[in-house]
Amino acid sequence: MFCTECGENLTLVFKQGEGLVPYCKKCDDYRFPRFATAVSMVVTNRTKDRILLAKHRGQDDYILFAGYVKKGETAEKAVTREFKEETKLDTVKFRYMSSRYHEPRNVLMLNFLIMAENGEILLDKNELDEARWFTVDEALENVRKQSTAETFLKAAVNELKKF
Fold it and tell me: For residues 116, 121, 122 and 125, what is the CA-based torsion angle, rounded to 10 degrees?
């Protein structure tokens, strides 16, 4: 870990009320970790009997729709914008579900359950190779195993009836 201000190596130092926090000796200051924020979407249809999964460019596994929150944008705005950009479908409604830190990309994922408007899916081929509707059971079988997507999908399936 390196200081974002001066580039020095950081050391972990105990800070009262915070625990171990990266510390820069040169700047004499604590450097709390920085990470990106993204939204992840479990997409259902109006009858809540189908889940839309995607294959992102060059990947073999089905995962959830996702995208980064832009500077100055709310997570709620990012949900509708990202989904529309990737599929050209509108979002009927959405609800925040939970969050999870995704270490491989150093990103805090904010997961939403969304209901998509019916219509033709027109994929953004720069981001996605495929999108496909699955029954709920098929979605659980086909989502990438032991992934953040699978964790979010399992939680959302339990909430579908309430949505």
Answer: 90
